[in-house]
Amino acid sequence: VKKKKDIIDFFGLNKPVYYIFNGIDFNNAVEVFSPCANIIFKNCNFNLHIYINIGNEVTFENNKYKDAVSDSINKKFFSARSVNKLTFKNDNFTNSCKFKNFADPCFGIKINNANEVNFINTKVDTEYPGTIDIKAKRTKMRKSEINSPEIYIDSQSI
Questions:
Q1: H/E element holding 10?
Q2: pLDDT tier, 72 (very low <50, low <70, confident <90, very high otherwise)
Q3: Which of 17, 84, 138, 150 is the residue whose CA sits 20 to 30 A from 59?
Q4: Alpha helices (runs of H) in 12-126, residue ranges in sequence order
C-alpha cells in the first residue's frame, strides 16, 4: 500500500475525481453510491426517483423533475443518505408531470445524515402528500424559495 501511495504522490495523481452528467434524460431511477468522487447533474431530466446512498459532493444544477407515480424508497422522489455535501444550485425542484393529478405521486425530499445541504438560487415546491425532511449538520439557503405542506429541518446550523 505504501508503494502505491508513493507512486501516486510522485506522479501527482492524487486529485479529486469529477463525474459530470450534462443534458441527460434519465428515464430510469437514478441510484448513486460514490463515497469519494464529486458528481454534478446539470441540465438533466429525471423521470423517476433519485436515491443517493453515500456520496461525497453531489450537485444538482438547472434540472427538470417529473414524477407521475412514485415508487421510490421511503415514498420520496428524492432521497439521500450519508452525503458529505449536497447542493441544489440554480435548480427548479418542482414536479413538471402534466398528469400528476391522476396518480398519487409523493414528490418530496428526504435527506438523512448529511454534513452540509445547500440551496442556492433554487426553487423547491412539493405538493401534498410530499414533504421535505432534512437532517444535516449544516443547512444553507441563499436566494431560494421552499414550499411544501410539511417541512422538517434538523440542523445544528441553518
A1: helix 2-11
A2: very low
A3: 150
A4: none
